[in-house]
Amino acid sequence: MRLLAPVVIFVYARPEHTKRTIEALAQNYLAKETEVFIYSDAAKGEKTVDKVRMVREYIDSLPQKNLFKSIKIIKSQSNKGLANSVISGVSEIIDKYGRVIVLEDDLVSSRDFLQYMNDALNFYEKDYDIWSISGYTFNIDIPKDYKSDVYLSYRGCSWGWATWKDRWEKVDWDVSDYNQFKNDKRARKMFNRGGRDMANMLDLQMEGKIDSWAIRWCYTQYKLGMLTVYPVVSRIKNIGLDGSGTHSGITSKYDVVLNNSSQKCRFDKPHLDERILKAFRDQFGTRYDYFLIGMKRTIKKLLGM
Fold first, then answer.
1. I need a surface site. Which of 25, 88, 101, 273 has the fewest CB within 10 A?
2. How remote is the C-alpha of 297 from its chain's centroid?
3. Burial (Cβ within 10 Å: 0-12, 13-18, ≥19) of residue 199
4. DSSP string covering 199-264, please?
5. Is the pTM for the entire model greater than 0.70?
6. pLDDT at position 255, please?
7. Alpha-carbon radius of gyration of the chain
């Protein structure tokens, strides 16, 4: 029997969200067979010191609870930020295990999340059209004549995802060809097949206005012409869009109902469905949320709010 993929969880300064994320994962059917690695980033400033301490007190209590096959906790002594934490943490674990399932501290999973992810990793491992597996899906209308349990998209998702070492190590984190890309209208249009925000988001990353690992990950996916597998019914719910996160605002737009079926997901290789791709693209605007949130926070600071 093939070993299950390890789960890597990135936590920071949201103790209640972290608890809900861990408790939901512990209810998964394969939890007791799964190795878990928790990366805890250090506080960036005085405002987050207490919350980081609370998170670390909670995760320190987990090993004796026997929720998973094993738990290893890695605490940073200085603040790395999410992007650097994800890049270094995923690289460390995937280099050892060859595959990885990744969560952040605001993602509640369905009970079959680990089953779905491991089955997908096995099914698509040798299919080099596939870049990654997403556990989350948007609340979009799936056409009634669409028969598959999964669909394909041009864009990876950072809300509960999985991939393999041979894909991850292809990422060009420096985006070395950005100067060529930024003025190439055709390339920008192609990149935006996954959402109208993507090229603008990469611009913001390269201008130093945001710090995103995911847009650089997705850019390499676009360059390689690879696809991400999404479930028709979501296995992940994001509970962090309540203003509590460093990179998230307040919205209910992305709320979903988690899968509760006892039937295993049936994996296949569906054709790209333009109806679904359009509904998927429509979830994204032309401006990137992180930038807008940052602007709002700057204005509040200037006003002393």
1. 88
2. 24
3. buried
4. HHHHHHHHTTS---HHHHHHHHHHHHT-EEEEESS-SEEE--TBTTSTT--B-STT--PPP--SSP
5. yes
6. 80
7. 19
